[in-house]
Automatic annotation (TrEMBL):
Subunit note: Heterotetramer of two alpha-3 chains and two beta chains (the beta chain is the multi-functional PDI).
Name of the featured protein: Prolyl 4-hydroxylase subunit alpha-3
Predominant cellular place of this UniProt entry's protein: endoplasmic reticulum
Molecular function GO terms recorded: iron ion binding; L-ascorbic acid binding; procollagen-proline 4-dioxygenase activity
Length: 505
């Protein structure tokens, strides 16, 4: 118990850093789900056993479950993939690009290393799903640490060097590297020579090599479980430095003459795009012809022309943001996505969300009026959906998707108010790294800017969906990301955003 307490105390010298650092977050979930019960029921806990068991039972229902722990492990693998992180670096608490000398993507104030048991659990989550690309990388690190500490075993751990060798050997066998699988299995038998299953495996591997079975030399390919078609572009946008430094650190300034632009564009346009779009980008104070915004105009930054994307700085206050998060907190549930005519959970969207009516609190009502004034659209039900508050925690993300429906069978049409015309997304918090909003076809990455609102049109004036609005929420690398979404539908906006003269517009 003393050792467990010292470990917890060392990891949480700064209580506020627990959620920010993904390695700390994973360690916390694992200790609460796995390590702590192992301590409670260990042979060492002989004194006051009944008191420990009773106290544990009282809080057991509130502790993370197996789904939470496995989800945290998958989140670390997601961060590894999207941000091209070195597993060895992550094991040592460093968030460094694999095979790169570039500065780390995130430098926590307190470096946290993962234990051999931690690394084994991440590798086993991949192993159990047949993902040997990830299991090999994480189990290799686990085996290395277990070798260094062999002979010392902690009661809170569930795995050992033998477990790691066993899983790693079979991973290499499934990857086609039979000779290495044989080497690891022989090492296993050095520690546990009576294991009949591994003895049979060794004989099998030796026979395969004797018969001339070729050992694979091709590197394992990373699985694409969600069949993401734009994975390379998506990950490149998420890795952009501009997508990891919030513009809140860059002074916002309105620009009366366009020739004196001091408002930095976030995209990396080609020379042709620069000639076409750059003269129209800039910052300005906007009232949109609304008396509501006359005394306090919106601070507009025009981010992109096609698709139309604008960022409104200081759109809400800190007090308003905290109020909305507090209202939504008790109602948060795992986010779902539209799939055909149903809504269901999916690995390509990892977050929790809740819906708030404008009657939930005066702050929500005020925010609704402000969005209506800013957009010039009718936000009364059923012309707009309720405010959706979303929390993206450890590795939380949403892979490339459209906000508007691409099929008439979509659940979005149940409101009988047409398709989603426009989106207002408000950043309720800041993050230390990651979490950008990436517009894939527009080659645009917008970082998280606390208290700012991002606006874009989902549909063209002729009612067709704008394919350039394909966007994604990049995984949160460090921090806790909160956003509030307002989706505005077609009906009720006929005279506020009328059709154009050109049918193609």
């Amino acid at each position: 118990l003393c050792r467990f307490y010292e470990k917890v105390q060392a990891l949480h010298q700064d209580p506020e850093a627990s959620v920010d650092n993904p390695l700390l977050a994973f360690s916390l979930i694992k200790r609460l789900h796995s390590d702590w019960p192992n301590v409670i029921y260990s042979d060492e806990a002989t004194e006051n056993t009944q008191a420990l068991h009773d106290a544990f039972k009282e809080v057991e229902q509130e502790l993370p479950g197996a789904e939470d722990l496995d989800g945290a492990a998958r989140a670390l693998m997601r961060l590894q993939d999207v941000y091209a992180l070195s597993v060895k670096g992550m094991a040592n608490g460093v968030f460094q690009h694999a095979g790169s000398s570039r500065p780390p993507l995130y430098s926590p104030g307190q470096r946290v290393s993962l234990s051999a048991d931690d690394l084994f659990h991440v590798g086993k989550v991949a192993y159990d799903t047949g993902d040997y690309y990830h299991s090999i990388a994480w189990l290799e690190e686990a085996v290395g640490l277990f070798r260094l500490s062999y002979g010392s075993w902690n009661p809170e751990d569930r795995s050992s060097l033998e477990d790691a060798l066993d899983h790693l050997a079979f991973s290499y066998f499934m990857a086609g590297n039979i000779s290495h699988a044989l080497s690891l299995s022989r090492e296993f038998l050095h520690y546990d020579p009576s294991n009949r299953r591994v003895v049979r495996n060794v004989a099998k591997y030796e026979k395969l090599l004797e018969t001339g079975t070729v050992t694979s030399t091709e590197p394992l390919r990373r699985p694409n479980s969600t069949r993401l078609q734009n994975r390379d572009a998506y990950e490149e946008l998420c890795q952009r430095p501009g997508g990891q430094v919030g513009l809140a650190r860059v002074p916002w300034s309105p620009t009366p003459p366009l020739s004196t632009l001091s408002c930095p564009p976030w995209s990396s346009p080609s020379p042709q795009q620069a000639l076409e779009h750059l003269p129209q980008l800039g910052c300005s104070y906007e009232t949109n012809g609304s008396p509501y915004l006359l005394l306090q105009p919106a601070k507009k930054e025009m981010v992109q022309i096609r698709p139309y994307v604008a960022l409104y700085h200081d759109f809400i206050s800190d007090v308003e943001a905290e109020t909305i998060k507090g209202l939504a907190g008790p109602w948060l549930q795992r986010s779902v996505v539209a799939s055909g005519e149903k809504q269901q959970k999916a690995e390509y969207r990892i977050s929790k969300s809740a819906w708030l009516k404008d009657t939930a609190h005066p702050v929500v009502q005020t925010l609704e009026k402000r969005m209506a004034a800013l957009t010039g659209l009718d936000l009364r039900p059923p012309y707009a959906e309720y405010l959706q508050v979303v929390n993206y925690g450890l590795g939380g993300h949403y892979e490339p998707h459209f906000d508007h429906a691409t099929s008439r069978k979509s659940p979005l049409y149940r409101m009988k108010s047409g398709n989603r015309l426009a989106t207002v997304m408000i950043y309720l918090s800041a993050v230390e790294a990651g979490g950008s909003t990436a517009f894939i076809h527009a080659n645009l990455s917008v970082p998280v800017v606390k208290n700012a609102a991002l606006f874009w049109w989902n549909l063209r004036r002729n009612g067709d969906g704008d394919g350039d609005t394909l966007h994604a929420g990049c995984p949160v690398l460090a921090g806790d990301k909160w956003v509030a979404n307002k989706w505005i539908h077609e009906h009720g906006q006929e005279f506020r955003r009328p059709c154009g003269i050109d049918p193609q517009d």
